[in-house]
Amino acid sequence: MRMVLLSVGLLLLLASLDQSIVSTALPTIVADLGGVDHLSWVVTAYILTSTIVAPLYGKLGDLYGRRNTIFVSVGVFIAGSVLCGVATSMTFLIVARAIQGMGGGGLFVLALSVVGDVVPARERGKIQGVFAAVFSVSSVLGPLAGGWLTQHADWHWIFFINIPLGLIALFGFAASFKPRGIRTSHRIDWWGAIALTLGLGALTLVTSLGGRSFAWDSSTALALAALTVVSFAAFVMIEARAAEPILPLWLFKMNVFWVTSVLGFVVGAAMFGAITFVPLYLQIAKGATPTGSGLQLIPLTVGILIASTLAGRYMGKTGRYWYLPVIGMSLLTFGMLALTQLSRDTGIAVFSLSIVVVGLGMGCIFPVVTTAVQNAVPRETMGTATAAGIMVRQTGGALGVAAFGALFSARLMAGDAATALGGNVQIGPQTMAKLSPELQTTVANAVVDAIHPIFWIAAAMSIVGLAFCFVLKEIPLVNRMVPKGE
Q: What count of other Cβ atoms lies within 10 Å of the Cβ of residue 422?
């Protein structure tokens, strides 16, 4: 079992690493390829496609076994990484990131579902805590690695590094997780998958581009909004009639599932917002190098690591979890409120304390949202339920980054920095170094002003999440017999 967990932990590291590895490289990528108005899509494209395919991977894993499905997802992920590494334009890179996300979404779902297969319920809290720690390490290891490779090699290498890691994880998993050899005929809910894909895609597009690439009352915005509503309505009708739905509607009748989904959505939006835009603040407003900005995010990882480990131990010892999201959302709210006070003069100690609090909040929530759901559903739907929870969290991340990116770009392009630079704000460390001290101050202040609303919104979302914590019904974690393989 240890080898299985080590392998799936590496798979989770691989997938989560690429959600954050581009953050510290974004200013350099934008300076190289252009397209600051599409900056957030380098992150959003990956999160969006990984979100869309998550339910499909979860269902395929339940129906055909998780072993072969993992092989497919790793292969797609590596292919997407190669394409990202050879990208020569922003459009090429965004499309390649979308392909990469199609593989990464499977790694998230299948890695966490395997834990449900091989670990008893009371022990899953500890393992999910460890995996949350892996996720947190990647959230800072990603920016740090991205910054170091960007500064000392070339930003293309932040994608090529996935190839050896992916192959190591694949071979380790293949050797340790043996198939049962049982195959059953099933029907895949393809129409449900198509409707869900259209709904999530249209929702993300209208959120990220509305008010910037087209007006909110334009025909394009109205068409995307209509497509979102129609697609989700069609999805609900399809799922209600499907023999083997990709996302069973009865899950949303479960208190544990829908409440933890709300919490996951909030944490996803807050986390990706912080990881994506804080490096911009550090590099442009504070003058940090890409590597330096990655190092300054280490307190975030420390917070998640400490809290997730303690949360996992608490669940393993007591079989309970209700207090954890309450504590987590409270800390996340305080941390985001602290980040709203960032300025060019904010010291490293104050900044570090702020993101430590954010990390502690996330670490209390991460292990709960997966463990609680896996404990509440039958084993035959564990992969589907896990995938659904991840889908909601990833949706929060995709919409959060898209909306925050649209807000950030709009405020930046409308500010003094855009005027001073002739409306072409291709900001990056190299660009800043070429500006006069007066213009550097203007651009830095504009970035600070543009980033503040992101954290105000994240703080408000955290308060909403805290309110939902109080309606969560706790189902004590009980160990059940699980098979040794699949």
A: 7
Polymer length in residues for the chain:
486
Q: What is the DSSP letter of 214?
A: B
Which of 20, 90, 40, 28 minimizes the C-alpha distance to 289? 28
Distance CA 109, CA 102 (A): 12
Whether the CB-CB separation of 418 and 405 falls below 8 Å is answered with: no
pTM of the model: 0.74
For residue 245, CA distances in Å to 141, 260, 380, 389 come to 37, 21, 13, 15
Max mean pLDDT among 27-31, 60-64, 91-95, 462-466 falls in 462-466
Is 348 buried (19+), middle (13-18) or exposed (0-12) by CB count in 10 A?
exposed
| Distance, CA of 305 to CA of 125 (rounded, Å) | 14
CA 486 – CA 179 distance, rounded (Å): 5
Alpha carbons within 13 A on the beta-carbon side of 434: 7
Read off the amino acid at residue 291. T
Q: What is the DSSP letter of 472?
A: P
Distance CA 235, CA 242 (A): 10
**Helix (H), strand (E) at residue 49:** helix 41-64
pLDDT in tens, 75-99: 898 899 899 888 888 888 888 988 9
